[in-house]
Amino acid sequence: MDSHRKLIPFLLLFLIQLLSSGAEARHLLRFRARKLFVFGDSYVDTGNTMKADSSAWKDPYGETFPGKPAGRFSDGRVLTDYIAKYLRVKSPSPVPYQLRESKPEHVKYGMNFAFGGTGVFNTSSPYPNLTVQIDFFRQLIKIKVYPETDLNGSVALVSVAGNDYSYYLHTNGSIQGFQSFVASVINQTTRNLIRINELGVKKILVSGLQPLGCFPQITFTSSFQQCNSTFNALVDIHNTLLNQAVAKLNQLAKDNSTFIVLDLYDSFMSVLKHMSLKPCCVGVSSGFSCASADDNNVKKYSVCDAPKSAFFWDLLHPTQAGWHAVYNKLRKTTALQQLHYH
Questions:
Q1: Record's superkingdom (predicted)?
Q2: Does residue 161 contact residue 120 with C-beta atoms inside 8 Å?
Q3: Which of the residues are catalytic?
Q4: What are 144-193's pLDDT values in tens digits?
Q5: Whose CB has fewer CB within 10 Å in the chain, the N or C terminal residue?
Q6: pTM (two decimals)
């Protein structure tokens, strides 16, 4: 007994030193998600789109990671991969819903229901919108793939809405009606977040909208020299309403539920101060895009020499290096730090 008492001061000293070291303490105490469930669009999709009709399954996508096309809309890793890393989910990244039967060993770590091109509402994409993605999740819970009691320590990542606004503008939606449309997108997003929470997930990350006015699809008119302030002002409307909606959800939250906004706008803009707006992979002419080929399967695109130095991979999506830089900004924010401790 006396020897144990003598040990106590040394143990206390050790703990104090450990806790004061910061990085080591965070590593030990950081919340470890049992599972990660992902919903949304191409920014978080890791392989749900069909190979026959998606550029993400064609060269040169995936050339940095995993070394071949694998359904990610980038040359390598996307936001999902970095959030999974941050949460220390045991699987490298949640298995795509479409591949769940071919990779059953990964199902226990969560699942990715996101499909490239989709939105909160229906878009030009043939794939399921956010509501239907959550329906898939609900069905898996219903058949006990994920017992409700096992969801408390899980995290959901939701990244959606960019395609809703693109579709709205491409189908002659008016600027005058834009604010009303944004409100409908936010209202439906809020309902979807509540639904995920009611299914048992207590910690829900939702991405704010990225600066659409900085996308190469828009900035090509300025030879990729400057962002379009009009588009970014529209994005600001969305992000303001989203933050207000999430703040209200947290006021009403029960059972230790937490809703967290990931500020993609500021993290993108912060990184873009030091990186070019010019995309790495482009079509050889206006009729082609990244991964295009002619009828003889001759490639009709070019890839920059150093994807690691480029922020944008194609006209819409970051490179792995771009996502990594954004992730490095995000993990220093209070948003992600809310997940540090269980």
A1: Eukaryota
A2: yes
A3: 42, 314, 317
A4: 999 887 898 899 999 999 999 999 999 988 888 999 999 999 999 999 99
A5: N
A6: 0.90
